[in-house]
Structures are given as C-alpha cells and as structure tokens.
Design brief:
2 domains, Rossmann fold, four-stranded antiparallel sheet, CBS-domain, six-stranded mixed sheet, alpha/beta
Length: about 400
C-alpha cells in the first residue's frame, strides 16, 4: 500500500533528515516508526501526505506515485492524527468529526451519520458527546475524536504522529487498547510515529527502528526484541528487552501443564480422596462440558460428606484466554498472588486447556526467542530445564 524507493530529504542548510530510505508497508499493516527525537521518523511520515516534499526518490500509495497527485486531493485520501489533536474549538464534536466528509462534498446528513457511527466506534456515544465542544472533553476523549475524524471519510491509509503522547500513562494505555480493538475492525494501513519503544512493540505489526536518518532494523516486534540487528538497536530497545518481549509473545497450548481436574457433580469425598492419593494440593473444577468453573483444594474436607464438588468449588480469579500475551499472564499471577493461571479457549465458551506456571512462562519466552533465531515454529524448539537436565543425568 505504501512504498518508499530510495527516498532522501535534504534541507538547504545541508541537513539530511532521511537518507536513501526504502521500505514497504502492506495493506492493512500497522507499522510503528520509533527512534529518538530528530531521527527522521516524523519527516518520513509527512512525506507520505506531501506536507514535506522529498529531495530524491519516489513514494507510492496503492501503486500511484504521489508526486503526480494533487496534494490537497492526496491528503483527503489519508487520515491524519497528531499529538495535539487539532480540533476546531468553535465546532461541536460531531461537526469536527464530519470535517473531511464535508470537504469532500458529502451531503450534510450523510456526513453527520458517518460521524456518529465513528464516534460510537471509538467509544463516545454521539447522543452524549456529539453536541459538546472540545473544551468540554478530557484529553483522552479529544484524542478519540481525533481518531474518529481521521477515519470519517474511510481513508485506506492512516498517519499517526505520537497521537497518545500528550496524555498520562493510564489514559495512554486505555487509548492503545481501544485503538488495537478499532484496528482489528477497520484494518487500515497505518504509519504510527512514536519515541516509546514499548508503545511501538505493543501496537506494531512491524517496527522500523530509526538511527540518524535511516532505518537500522525493520522487522516484527518479537524479532527486534529477540534478535536486534545492530548494537544500536540493542541499546535502543534496552537491556530489559526480554521483559518487553513478554508483551508480544502469546500463550500457546504447548506452554501449558495439565493439572488434576474434577467436575461439579463429582462426589466431594471421592474427589478429595483421589487428590490426596495423587499428592495433589488442588484441582481445577470443570462443568459438564469441560468449561472452566473454578478450583478446589485437596485438604479441609471430610471424606464422609455426601456433598458434591459443586457445593465447595471456589471462584477462579486468575485466568486468561489462549493467545493472551505472556506479559498479561505474568501480571495476572502477580495481581492475584497466584502460582499458576488457568488458560481457556474463549472461542468455545471457556473450554479449559490447561494451566500456565511461572516455569512454563519462562520456557515459552525462551522458546519464542530460539524459534525466531532458528526460523521454526515454537513447538519445534526444545529448551533445557532443570527437570530435563535431572532426567538426563539420572539415565
């Protein structure tokens, strides 16, 4: 969708902002441009909508050389979101959102209808917020309106220049979450400028790590964190890149252990006897369709009771769906002071798949790094553990 061919931007004083840049962004892909201030990432983005003209090279949008397209018409095909939002203070939220459709000549009713749809999509009820003015909104709400306005004419490309940089960390995380949900629905081709490597990793399908005017590495977040291409990239992503990688490594079924399980209608006496005989301290409780219900300890019950497991099962607080990032799994363990979390298949109404322990979480991270290095699926990577070393030594 976007292609740079040997693009250079050189200013009259001799400063080279970007130097011989060549890369492609696929349709529907979100690429984050990350690097320190003055590295050329914003210049790169502004050349796409011709707010800045390149000195050399060519840029293509959906196969068209943008130098041959009228700049005003080009910009109306591209959504643009900036850190300061840039809402018109004298226009209502609905009117601000309908700005581009109005410029494109849409009928007033159609433009307002589209604006209302987009406000609803970004989590702002148009019946509540549509008639308000920007000064009546919080910073996070204004950013949402900015995103809605950029999407109002349904552009194929969205340019975002540090759109969440002016809000506090809590609001920023919420906006990032909402934007990821939104992108999953609309699948725009996005260039997203940020100086924050954690934001780049969290949002990007791929990351372009900038040095001074050039891209040092252009790859998936997992690869950038697990196999930095240069010492510069390794230094930029930080010594804690292993921890950052937790956020882009999903839980897979192969990461899970299979603990004892009991069912709601099982006899409590028989269930506790079996667990004690197996030396298990607890069991996962499932319903009749093997969906997660909760858990139950092995101790504390008399074997003479006629109760079923249902009467004593405890609520399961620490659980996640398969595919959730390992970072979220680690955070859930800490939040609930849990030695493991249950993992379910959310697509099948909570079918229980197994449990993730801290040891298995660590193994999953190591396998992910090795899998990228060897260019093989994670399931094919064997990692050395204390257990495997002990078994080998005893043979």
């Amino acid at each position: 969708m976007i292609r740079f061919e040997h693009v250079t931007k050189r200013y009259a004083d001799g400063t080279t902002a970007v130097d011989d840049l060549s890369f492609e962004v696929a349709e529907g892909e979100l690429v984050t441009l990350v690097g320190p201030s003055g590295c050329g990432k914003t210049t790169t983005m502004k050349m796409v909508n011709r707010l800045i003209e390149p000195t050399e090279g060519r840029i293509f949008l959906d196969g068209d050389d943008i130098s041959a397209i009228d700049p005003v018409r080009l910009r109306r095909r591209i959504g643009y979101v900036i850190q300061q939002v840039g809402l018109f203070p004298h226009r209502t939220v609905l009117e601000n959102t309908a700005t581009v459709p109005h410029l494109l000549g849409w009928k007033r009713g159609k433009g307002r209808e589209r604006a209302a749809e987009l406000l609803d999509l970004v989590g702002l009820d148009p019946s509540v917020y549509g008639d308000r003015y920007p000064e009546q909104l919080s910073g996070g709400q204004r950013q949402r309106v900015g995103v809605a306005r950029a999407l109002a004419a349904d552009p194929p490309v969205l340019l975002m220049d540090e759109p969440f940089g002016a809000v506090d960390p809590v609001v920023r995380e919420r906006l990032q979450n909402e934007f990821l949900k939104l992108q999953a629905q609309v699948r725009k081709t996005v260039l997203f400028v940020t100086h924050d490597i954690e934001e780049a990793v969290r949002l990007g399908d791929r990351i372009a790590v900038y040095g001074q005017g050039s891209i040092e590495q252009f790859d998936s977040p997992a690869t950038v964190l697990g196999a930095p291409a240069t010492p510069y990239v390794a230094d930029f992503v930080g010594a804690d890149r292993g921890l950052k990688r937790l956020s882009v490594t999903p839980i897979e079924e192969g990461d899970l252990e299979q603990p004892p399980v009991v069912h709601l209608d099982d006899s409590l006496a028989r269930a506790t006897e079996r667990l004690r005989a197996e030396g298990a301290r607890w069991a996962v409780v499932l319903d009749g369709e093997d969906n997660l219900h909760g858990w139950i300890p092995a101790d504390g019950f008399t074997t003479k009771t006629k109760d079923t497991v249902r009467a004593h099962a405890r609520r399961m607080e620490a659980w996640l769906p398969v595919g959730a990032p390992l970072k979220q799994a680690f955070a859930t363990m800490l939040q609930h002071d849990a030695g493991w979390i249950a993992v379910i298949d959310k697509e099948s109404n909570g079918h229980f798949l197994g449990v993730l322990t801290p040891a298995r979480l660590h193994e999953a991270l190591r396998r992910s790094i090795d899998a990228d290095a060897q260019d093989v699926p994670r399931a094919e990577v064997a990692v050395e553990t204390v257990e495997s070393v002990t078994k080998t030594a005893s043979r």
